[in-house]
Design goal:
By secondary structure, the protein is an alpha+beta fold. It has eleven helices and twelve strands. It is 46% helix and 22% strand. The longest helix has 61 residues.
């Protein structure tokens, strides 16, 4: 009897110890996953900000309006600060990366010094424009190197926790693709050390607009979110998904879905608003190893995807290719006017035309019926506000949001200066230069209809 009791107590102890160890293991894995997710977020935001930085520097070179130049330089300074913040969140403290940090500081210092001065009374000198152009080309080289690292991270499913452990080890880090890639970037930035230089707030505002747009809609439960995801993805049969309610730090509540593809094991991530069941974004994490599909065919697939999911009167306004993925931006079209505030982005794999990405923040936040808007200026009158060096290739009418967050009717001009193509928005009432955007070289800008 005593032996049986002792055996029972020991068995309970063993089971309890095993259960405790299991809980400890689960907690450790949760911490590692959270750290990895934070690193991945910071890394991809850094890549995005470096892309944005290069484009914004290019936009300043095409501006003819002094009143627009100062805000644009302010944006350059803000984006640089965000990129520096992203760098600070990556586990690079043990690896020399000072040259890249110095390069970002140089861009930030140049843009801040010139943004705060009165450019009407004291415009940029010829040497300062040369410095700005030099920074633009240099940032493009950094941008290209960062894209190579991002491509490796996505294609090979590289983990930042491996970087942290490699850097923290007493020995040499060894062969790590991320470390090697960042060392190349730092060496590239070091080559620019002698050069003379003589959107978190936006996303927060957009989140509040999404919350307002869905506040009167009915709430859905987790199973309804899974059903919506299945329809959105055109997945037949029962869809298996891990669903968590999220919304911490956001103005709206949403369901975050993780879906494992049963065929090859890759994952699909989606966020769907709790109110109204609106898909906010989609990301399919898989390798796209070839590009046998043309960008035109992929754009048609993206347009059909939006049409199937209830997006009416959408027009393709931007198309780009990153590695083997086509990225397409669509704007709502009303009375032959492009409504850029009501935009959606679709990513299509160029190996089999699968939709592997979608982003609908702007469309959900802004789409509504609008009163007709009439232009106060003719197209010829609006052209007078353009940089004389711009060779206009195409124009449209468009609605965009100005700095006061007001929707304004503009003439949208596509034109070329030297080897670069720009999209410039001129206010259709007062001729003000509202926005200048540099287009990527690989981006077709004509015949969007």
């Amino acid at each position: 009897m005593i032996r049986s009791i002792i055996i029972g107590v020991l068995a309970v102890g063993v089971i309890g110890t095993g259960y405790w160890g299991y809980l400890e293991h689960q907690e450790k894995n949760a911490i590692l996953i959270q750290s990895e997710n934070n690193y991945q977020r910071a890394f991809h935001e850094l890549t995005y900000n470096l892309d944005h930085l290069h484009d914004e520097l290019g936009s300043t070179l095409a501006m003819n309006s002094k009143e627009r130049l100062s805000p644009s330089l302010t944006d350059v300074w803000r984006i640089t600060s965000e990129a520096q913040n992203d760098l600070g969140q990556l586990p690079l403290a043990l690896m020399p990366f000072s040259k890249t940090e110095e390069f970002l500081y140089k861009i930030g210092d140049f843009s801040y010094r010139n943004a705060v001065r009165d450019l009407e009374q004291d415009p940029l000198s010829e040497d300062e424009y040369k410095s700005l152009k030099k920074l633009y080309h240099q940032s493009g080289e950094i941008q290209n190197e960062m894209r190579k690292v991002q491509s490796m991270v996505l294609d090979d499913h590289l983990k930042w926790m491996d970087v942290e452990m490699a850097l923290a080890s007493q020995d040499e880090p060894g062969d790590n693709a991320i470390i090697d890639g960042f060392q190349v970037i730092d060496e590239k930035a070091g080559q620019f050390s002698e050069a003379s230089t003589g959107d978190e707030g936006n996303r927060s505002q957009q989140d509040e607009e999404i919350a307002k747009a869905v506040e009167d809609l009915d709430e859905i439960d987790k199973q309804e979110a899974v059903n919506i995801a299945g329809e959105f993805l055109e997945r037949e049969g029962k869809l298996e998904a891990d669903v968590e309610e999220t919304g911490d730090g956001l103005a709206y509540k949403a369901y975050s879905l993780t879906i494992e593809d049963p065929e090859d094991g890759h994952y699909i991530y989606m966020d769907i608003t709790k109110k109204g069941g609106k898909p906010v974004y989609l990301l399919e994490d898989r390798q796209v190893e070839s590009s046998g599909v043309s960008l035109y065919d992929a754009s048609e697939k993206a347009e059909k995807f939006l049409d199937k999911n209830g997006f009416e009167n959408m027009q393709l306004v931007d198309s780009k290719q990153y590695d083997n993925v086509g990225v397409f931006k669509f704007a709502y079209l009303v009375d032959d006017i492009r409504v850029y505030t009501d935009a959606a982005v679709v990513e299509v794999a160029l190996d089999n035309k699968d939709v592997i990405g979608y982003e609908g923040f702007s469309y959900i936040a802004n789409h509504h019926d609008r009163k007709p808007m009439e232009a106060g200026l003719s197209e010829e009158e609006a052209r007078e506000s353009l940089n004389p060096a711009l060779e206009v290739m195409e124009y449209h009418k468009a609605i965009i949001e100005n700095e006061l967050e007001e929707e304004v009717l503009c003439y949208e001009f596509f034109g070329v200066i030297d080897d670069d193509t720009y999209r410039i928005f001129i206010n259709a009432d007062n001729g003000r230069e509202e926005k200048v955007e540099k287009m990527d070289r690989a981006e077709p800008v004509y015949n969007f209809n």
